[in-house]
Amino acid sequence: MTSESTLPRISRFWIDTNICLDQRKCVQEAPDLLQDRRESGGPLIISSSPDTPEKCLQILNAAWVCPVAAFKIEFEDGVVHDANGDYIRNLCKEFG
Question: Which tens digits make up the pLDDT trace of 71-86?
């Protein structure tokens, strides 16, 4: 397992509901932070505070599995990433 100091800190995350396909793969990856809902528009964010390394990994994996990169993550340095680039994928591979 990785130490919290080596895993980049997540400031916040959100889902762009304008492009979300409602496939709910992210809900399976982040059950402590997301909840499925019947209506369209993406999952319900039940906690926007990924305050443990495990929750941070859940968020990273949720973003990685999104087929349309609707899942956005802002890191502590202010940079926003989604699954379109290699950054999220590389973090998932490196940390779990």
Answer: 999 999 999 999 898 9
**How far is Cα 54 from Cα 47, in angstroms, rounded to an integer?**
14
**Radius of gyration of the chain, Cα coordinates, nearest whole angstrom:** 12
d(CA 12, CA 21): 21
Residue 12 CA, distance from chain mean position? 9
Structure tokens given for 62: 């949720």
Please state, in angstroms and rounded to a whole number, the distance separating the CA atoms of residues 28 and 77.
27
Distance CA 79, CA 49 (A): 17
Between helices 53-65 and 86-95, what is the axis angle to 10°? 130
> 2 pLDDT exceeds 90?
no
User: Taking a C-beta distance cutoff of 8 angstroms, is the pair 36, 47 a contact?
Assistant: no
Which CATH number is associated with domain 10-95? 3.30.70.20
